[in-house]
């Protein structure tokens, strides 16, 4: 019984390390989002850190329009990055979870 418990604890610790490694790797996964007309482009990591924002000169003339573009593009970019982040971390966590009866939250 204690051997099983120790094995599960070791497996959980290993999974935790894999999750942390995955999170670090996601800092190197870049995602791009652009407005439909290409006047605004955003690049961010899968960990939701903004790396670049490119704004066409035409948008600089209308503050309100620029603000609208930023809100729309940032929200879409953050959603995309969140989906990638959650899928990657969940895959690693699910792979490393020991089979504990009643704990099927990752299935």
From TrEMBL:
It is found in: Cytoplasm, Nucleoid. Keywords: Cytoplasm, DNA-binding. Gene3D superfamilies: Nucleoid-associated protein YbaB-like domain. GO terms for cellular component: bacterial nucleoid; cytosol. GO terms for molecular function: DNA binding. Pfam families: YbaB_DNA_bd (PF02575). Its main location: cytoplasm. It comes from the Bacteria. Homodimer. Binds to DNA and alters its conformation. May be involved in regulation of gene expression, nucleoid organization and DNA protection. PANTHER family: NUCLEOID-ASSOCIATED PROTEIN YBAB (PTHR33449:SF1). Belongs to the YbaB/EbfC family. This is Nucleoid-associated protein VZD24_09000. It comes from Aequorivita flava. The lineage of its organism: Bacteria, Pseudomonadati, Bacteroidota, Flavobacteriia, Flavobacteriales.
């Amino acid at each position: 019984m204690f051997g099983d418990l120790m094995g599960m604890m070791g497996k959980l610790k290993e999974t935790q390390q894999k999750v942390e490694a995955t999170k670090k790797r996601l800092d190197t996964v870049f995602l791009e989002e652009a407005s439909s007309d290409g006047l605004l482009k955003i690049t961010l990591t899968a960990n939701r850190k903004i790396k670049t924002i490119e704004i066409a000169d035409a948008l600089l003339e209308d503050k309100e329009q620029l603000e609208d573009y930023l809100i729309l593009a940032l929200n879409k970019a953050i959603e995309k990055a969140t989906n990638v982040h959650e899928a990657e971390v969940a895959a690693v966590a699910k792979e490393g979870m020991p089979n504990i009866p009643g704990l099927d939250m990752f299935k």
